[in-house]
Amino acid sequence: MKEKIVNGMQIFARAIVVPVLFLPIIGIIIALSSILSNPTIVGDGSSLINVGKYIASGLWPIMNNLGILFCVGIAMGMAKDKKAEAALVALLSFLIFLGANNEWLTLTGKLVSYKTTSDLYGTGQTIILGFQVIDMGVFLGIILGVVVALIHNKFSNKEFPGAFAFYGNTKLVLLVLVPSLLILGVAFSYIWPVIAIGISGLTGFINVSGYVGVFLYGFLNRVLIPTGLHHLIWTPFSYSNIGGTLAVGGKTVFGAYNIFLAQLTDPSIKIFDPSSKYLQYGMVKMFGLVGAALAFYKTAKPENKVKLKAILIPAVATSVLVGITEPLEFTFLFVAPALWIAYSVFDGIFQVIVVALGVRTYSAGGIIDFLTYNLPAGISRTRWPIAVVVGLVELVAFYFLFKFIITKFNLKTPGREDSEVKLYTKKDYQDKVSNSSVKEAVVKTNSSDLACVIVEALGGKENIETVDNCFSRLRVKITDADKVDEIALKATGALGVIKNGNNIQAIYGPKVSGVRTAVDKYLSV
Question: What residues sit in the active site (predicted)?
Fold first, then answer.
């Protein structure tokens, strides 16, 4: 049972990343457009103000309808095959639910009267695509996406004989979903208000717990990275009412990230909402890990420092610039788990410090995101210089913390191993696996075909059920975990390999999109 639960959480965590991958692009463009629409920057009466508003207005419909995005993305991400059909059925299902729920509220006299959309704030109802429905926020899309995926995986390959053949496959999925969605349209009218009370209570507990809540949020967001489940921590706080609710410009906005963006495009707001406390988990990416890397270098054996520098510099640059931390974190995660715990604790502590000092920044990504979001917002609204000062203190603190723990317990961190510090080359890989089945596969196809090696290291095509990726990990659902060759995967450039039941995560860093594309192409042949 435990394995099934963990496996289900891994599948869901992998799927929820599918829509999230696109949101930073939308956010960055909205942040940049706020520069053009800010009269303080471009001057009162400037034509650029309208240009900025025009750009933002084209993108806000996405942020205001995240439920649809999550519904389609999760269904597609969880689908074992026929992903395109799963996405289309998810869209149809979302629309069916809206119509059904609106009609039931109408028939039962539960519709709340309103003149403007803002009048519905706090009533438990909202407007989605013109339908007045129960206000479930992004959870509507998440729940429907999961329901669609489960039914899709069960019925999408079911065939019927003769004249009924047309109603098989994904058409059968929709046929099964229609009555399910009609029932959910009724059920959620009664169930969700109760759940909403629970969510409100959870939010209240986190807020009442103050800095303890912030610490736990920061700690869990980091310590769960090895499992890949950290997405289940920050995602609901960023995009749902768990992370806060605020009325901005006559519209109700849910989630810390959405609230930050909404405030960014409204110059009338003098200081940002405290919900930004859930957006500070990128501090360690820009500062803390730099200190950790310096400690690795300082404590390395003298003869290894030159080679270690060549490994650390690109890994640190990746973390600082774009906020992808795994290439650096996985250099010490498995060899020094105690150091990982200390690292997560310190990260939580420094998030508490910036929040206590009244910082209201967006600090979820690297320095590019930090500058893009916070500079247009201004110092008075975000107090971003305080975040920078605290970050520099964090850098120094992490350096001394890591240095002390490494030397005190003689940890075999990078540069202190008994073996030579090096990155595997293709020749190294071929030498290592000269007697393995992977070597045979490489010779049979092409020694330069990275995708072939990865697939064979995962047990071959027949052992692979689904392939996805997040910001830095290739996430694969396999049939038999015993067939996975971790050494071979690491030799292809994977910085680490994580096994959770039949879910495999290979850490490739920023190049993971290219790796996933190559693997998909190879599997389709």
Answer: 470 (phosphocysteine intermediate)
